[in-house]
Amino acid sequence: FISQIMENEERPVDGNAVKGERACHAVVLFYLYQEIQQGHLDSVITAQTDLCTRLGMRGRVLVSDEGINGTVSSPDADVLDQYIAEVSKTPPFSEVQIDWKRSHSAVEPFPDLVVKRVAHLVAGAAGSTENGGVHLSPEEFHAVLESPPKELVVIDVRNTFEHAIGRFVAADGIAAIEPKMKSFGGFASFCDSHAEEFAGKKVLMYCTGGIRCEKASAMLRDRGVDDVGQLRGGIHRYLEKYPDGGHFEGLNFVFDKRRAIGPKEGARRVAGACEYCSAPFDQLDGARICTVCRDLVLVCPKCRPSELHCRQHAALRTCFFTFLDHFPPDELARQAQELRGVLDSMGPGSSRNQRRTISRQLDKVETRLALLESGATHVTAHVPRCRTCGLESVLCDGHCWGFWKESRANCFSEDDLEPRDAVAVGDRVRRGPGWGARYGQQDGGAGNLGSVVEIKGWGSTDAMDAVAVDWDVGGRNVYRFGVIAANGSRIYDVVRASE
Predict the structure, then answer these.
(1) Of 20, 120, 125, 476, which has the fewest Cβ atoms less than 10 A away?
(2) Whole-number pLDDT of residue 54
(3) Of residues 52, 191, 207, 274, which has the active-site annotation?
């Protein structure tokens, strides 16, 4: 099983069908900034939900008073055509032509359908699009990169982890600037810091499909940068026009199970590098996230430590860990001392959230150390675990994180899955076979018994595969009860007990 995992990690990540696979799902990405009156939002959401459900489609559709933003898929390309036709003739989307960006996938991109109301079509993207930049076709964008002017600035308006695996590079070798964002909400401060530097220069910007540039270009122009051009249709449209990659190197990250799409087969150049050893690598995975901020981390299998730290939090690699149960007292004391030093070194530029994160970790380490010194708990064996779901790393397939999140039950047939043990509120429980791989500092004491007080989903799912237990001694906590691992087995932290 472990060898299978390593084989999958070495496999090129490309959402398009690879050699020997059939592209069995049609996908379309779209957005439209078109005002929707507040009184009509619910009807638009209902119409989208009904249409997608009737057509058997999956995907994500966001609706706000700004307009609509979505990616939907179907195993039948004709169904996708029908969806596009019906949306295009329905007000208010019939008033302006939508740029429908098609692609395909060898896997089902989405686990389900979600249509929801949001404050902004792009999270954190407040403000107007009225003062936006000039929309450049892929050919126009390419021409500037082919013969770049002396003072050209190219800005990647995507998140750090997206930039890490693919970016534009002009003919003179100058790569796009990466604003170092974990979300689009950080772009405003980037503009504040660089507007004076960019004034008077030619600025190009790009994103995945174009939507983030609509407000990003306006933000920059509102701060006095006049010559701003944005790639119409984003990287998606550019790769359609230049299937060999053109001036785009690497992969275009997408927010679904394809993970990334790239140039045609044989043309892809690995643009990413492992953040630990700098070896060429470009495969992001939901099981590889920063233990501090839970952002995706680009790290190759050979360098993969038990807990990862992104570039922003690289300085905390020796003192900030989620799982503390395997550390002896002297190591915890060292971590606490280093965390105090980090707190003392934080200057006025540090945010309240940054200080709070370090303070909470220090409290966690000191609490664990006190429990060990009092004899209330003990050091356990080191078992690498997923930062998101708590499963042993060899059992987690990364489908527990973010937009890859789904019930593992969808990956197996009923015949392949063993039945889940029955449990009810009020049942008495004791430690089970999965206990040793869980958080040692949260146990209820050696040989302790407890009562089930709630049945819920593990990791915020609706699978009802976890139980909250009130221990006779040691308080209350939540434990896995039938969680499905990547190999189809079930994990039980606790089991029913007879006293």
Answers:
(1) 20
(2) 97
(3) 207
